[in-house]
Amino acid sequence: MDVPLTHLDRPFDYLVPAELDAAAVPGVRVKVRFAGQLVDGWLLERADDSGHTGKLAYLERVVSPEPVLAPEIARLARAVADRYAGSLADVLRLAVPPRHARVEKEPRGDSDEPPMPGEPGGGVDPRGDSDEPPTAGERGADVDPRGWRDYPAGPAFLRALGDGRTPRAVWSALPGEDWAARYADAVAATVAGGRGAVVVVADARDLDRLDAALTGTLGPGRHVCLSAALGPARRYRAFLAARRGEVPVVIGTRAAMFAPVERLGLLAIWDDGDDLHAEPRAPYPHAREVLLTRAQLGAAGALVGGYTRTAEAQLLVETGWAREVVADRATVRARTPAIAPTGDDPQLARDPGAATARLPSLAWTTARDALRADAPVLVQVPRRGYLPSVACAECRTPARCPHCAGPLALPSAEGVPACRWCGRVAAAYACPECGGRRLRAAVTGARRTAEELGRAFPGVPVRTSGREEVLATVPGGAGLVIATPGAEPVAEGGYGAVLLLDSWALLTRADLRAGEEALRRWLTAAALARPGSAGGRVVVVADGALAPVQALLRWDAAWFAARELAERRELGFPPAVRMASVTGPAEAVADLLAGARLPDGAEVLGPVPADEGRERMLVRVPRARAAALAEALHAAAGQRSARKAADPVRLQVDPLSLF
């Protein structure tokens, strides 16, 4: 039943009246009476009898005869709920989009609206409801593995997919790689073998790129896109096309991780380190973990790819669950741009001010030389806006809102400071420490950087790409592109220079994944540069002795991931161990943990302050006892739910942020 009470997280038996016998099939939405109320539910299974000895009520009605909940997805949802100490109803709300009655009534393959890119083109599977795999003629031509030949294990991975086997790979993409085309190759090989595929990407830009690549490889109408940005009708139409078997491939953002696909052969995710893959709603599953769980349950292949490699992906390689697909070092050196830091000893000897300058001379001359060669220049800055953080010009105390203590920011050169949290304007701001009224920049945003570089390079076009306005591509010719991480556009022929500014803002964050995230953002931007042999250069404004910078200089994400995993294993942090976060009012957190029968060896850490007066406790166990920890926390939450405890407690297993 779709109820928000943890202690009711179990199936209930109901009788099926004769008039609903034909429509009440497993997977349909139903209405039932429970505790005097009419509630929504899912019909999971039909049986001849019940183990319940009391009186059974009847189903009230079948909401729709469409069996939208596939048996495989129901099993997966239960496994995900158990892994994340959540409830099945919460997972099913993520797995199946809300019903759109008009879409259900449309003839199959028909719509009042023209199909959008990635929507089925009106064609219905000619094999109908046949359970037989497609013939060689229906599968199409063999996939050309040339795009994967730079990776010694790449062609074998494609052959395994085409042969119906279940290869599992962690792929480190080369700089300049057309990753969408490589994923299209893997999907095409899977389809040629008579099976389907699900591919998850982080955002709409990546989805558009993969959509175009798949359309070119498979042809139109062979895949659908699933994304919350599509809107209710289009999203439900794409979901039904997949559920009805009209298309063999589903791609999308994290909304696609539960997509129902028949004869599933490949589950893939691109850039699994992006925090957009983490679901912000309970039970907070990560798309990577859902796809890997699904591959394990359904005996399907798996592909985890990116320019970088997370500690979680490295664990898959070290445990033997997956094989790494990487290029040899000679190929990496040939494809990598020339990368240089500004904070090492030789650079500091030539430019002593490089240690404190925001744009050291090396970065400035690199950009100048690229612009003179009529090549575009990409400048990555970690923050958007103009001055997203300001401080007192006299004593350097961070400027805070007098009402909510949020950070003050300047929207423009002529603007007045305003709070980033509550939006209140602080036109008459005075520093509480020294009384000063002048403000200085504490953090410089993308728009201020564009303004500064526009003055440094007069006459050169300057474009910005960020959350407010995302550029998809940059035309050829000289120009400066100022972008925030994740919004870097692709340049025709590659960038002549890439400047990575304000590295301290990434490396000094109080976060377990600070170094990993910094390297991920740098590699994503540097991958857009031309190879070094073609004049491509990358300058990172950071000390060259730092481990993330060393990994960038050598383009060796695997080395950094192995180092990161070893350190986390030594310190007892995920993914080497399983850790759960319990957040809420102090009394509620203590109450839940007191009622939890934690497994042997569990360590309780904390409390530490959270937000809005709440506190957080961490529970750590070895990976072998992860299931027992999730079960104990779920049972304790159920006890509080049954007692109707007033204060809510948020449970998160392996959250991205621990501090």
From TrEMBL:
Binds 2 zinc ions per subunit. Residues 101-111, 139-149 have a biased composition (Basic and acidic residues). Its cofactor is Zn(2+). Gene3D superfamilies: P-loop containing nucleotide triphosphate hydrolases (3.40.50.300), PriA, 3(prime) DNA-binding domain (3.40.1440.60). It comes from the Bacteria. Residues 4-97 form the Primosomal protein N' 3' DNA-binding domain. One of its GO terms (molecular function) is 3'-5' DNA helicase activity. Zn(2+) 1 binds at residues 392, 395, 431, 434. The keyword Kinase does not apply. Initiates the restart of stalled replication forks, which reloads the replicative helicase on sites other than the origin of replication. Recognizes and binds to abandoned replication forks and remodels them to uncover a helicase loading site. Promotes assembly of the primosome at these replication forks. PANTHER family: PRIMOSOMAL PROTEIN N. This is Probable replication restart protein PriA. It comes from Micromonospora rhizosphaerae. The lineage of its organism: Bacteria, Bacillati, Actinomycetota, Actinomycetes, Micromonosporales.
